Known about the structure:
Elements: E1 3-5, E2 7-9, E3 12-14, E4 21-24, E5 31-35, H1 42-59, H2 62-78, H3 80-91, H4 95-119, E6 125-132, E7 140-147, E8 152-155, H5 163-175, E9 179-182, H6 188-201, E10 209-211, E11 228-232, H7 235-242, H8 245-248, E12 253-257, E13 263-266, H9 275-289, E14 301-305, H10 309-320, H11 341-354, E15 359-363, E16 383-386, E17 405-411, H12 414-422, E18 427-433, H13 437-448, E19 451-457, E20 476-477, E21 488-489, E22 499-506, H14 508-513
Parallel strand pairs: 1-5, 8-9, 8-11, 9-10, 11-12, 13-14, 13-18, 14-17, 16-17, 18-19
Antiparallel strand pairs: 2-3, 4-5, 6-7, 7-22, 15-16, 20-21
Helix pairs in contact: 2-4, 2-5, 3-4, 3-6, 4-5, 9-10
Amino acid sequence: MTELLPNFAAGRWQHGVGLGTELLDPVLGTALVRVDAGGLDVAEAFAFSREQGGAALRAATYRERAAMLAAVVKVLQTHRDSYYDIATANAGTVKNDSAVDIDGGIFTLGQYARWGDALGDVRALRDGDAVKLGKEPIFQSQHLQVPRHGVALFINAFNFPAWGLWEKAAPALLSGMPVIVKPATATAWLTQRMVKDVVDAGVLPAGALSVIAGSSAGLMDALQAFDVVSFTGSAETAGIIRSHPAVTHRSVRCSIEADSLNSAMLLPGEGPGSEAFHLLVREVVREMTVKSGQKCTAIRRILVPAEVYDAAAEAIGAKLAGITVGNPRNEGVRMGSLVSRAQLATVHEGLARLQEQVTVLHDGRKQPLLDADPAVAACIGPVLLGARDADRASMVHDLEIFGPVASLLPYRNLEHALALAQRGQGSLVTSLYGTDDAVLAQATVALAASHGRVHVVTPEVAAAHTGHGNVMPMSLHGGPGRAGGGAELGGLRALDFYHQRSAVQASPAVLAALGL
């Protein structure tokens, strides 16, 4: 029987009382480890984090907590190679794709360590300037932000077991809130190992970081008024979280990142010979294949001028034909597997539904796998779909297939293109490709209301832009509507979620004594 991974809760390592769920290699089908959270005293775990971890973190200044993050970075860098081994075995990702997750998480931690150091040796943050409350400045109002006295619960998705933890934990810990992470079961091994390495290194106070791998039963019930919960996953599960009494009755602060039908748009006037056209094609292929399309920010809809449709289908299909799929241990493989056979089945079911309204323009399912058994491996080649009537093909605007799948859609004019992009009903990101700065700016403003991020690619930034799907800690990650309405990262804006804003009304002398 495989190893049962322990949970770290209430300041100690604890095994679940059940046999646990086996985590599998999605390419070889072999059992790796087991996870189980049965029998854990969840109330004790949350109380310990609040009372011990929270108090210790809040006793430190922002600069001191930033130093803790820097120490975590050093621990993770020391064990970095082992994380790549786990990602290959448990997530089926090639090395470059694992880097997006592992190195992306470490980079984000390091960035918040630097930002936090600049906040200085204070324990509360000034929010704007003091303003007088009457004709004379003898009585004023000063807003400040202080750490919330609670726990930050993270219920995370399977696609980013490393980055998904640290992009949330970095601002939470810097803010002074202890973290309890519940990773998605399918890929929980990497999250658990990272937490174990950090805990064993002793670089954080007891109770500052906990991991519960297995069932999420009881976690929402344990939340109290000053706790926060951040969820990444399906809209269906998000609805369950939003309707839980912790949120509806106890007003637990909640952040959701859910489904997102992100789009990429080639602006009018850009033909097959233009550099903007080639930049779009390159980015679409990258976004369809990195992590086998299992990214919440991946391109799902490709909007092009109607006269460019055929040329775009040919160009994208030609590049997709060169993508080798299979065992990530083979150096000839460009794209690994999905995280599980269950996810593979879900992708196939989604494709069957979409094909009722669209045409298959490139079918990577027909290509042989490299060094992998199709009867065992959770592998699928990239599939490009298309619909010549983008308005009638309603399902492409409503159904997200979480895999290497995207749909090519033609538009009549810019107004039509913008309307199609907005049919996603709120997305994490859209990207624009063109050369007319004025039109790009016009489209950007038009789409900003329905997108958390607008990524504009012109020939001048071809070598410098960070990628449609890359989430950088300096920029907002989140989106309105269907995308969940959450807001993560965005520099120090991320700290808002973990702080309480309060208005202090007092004399200038008292306000000065706050030491902000």
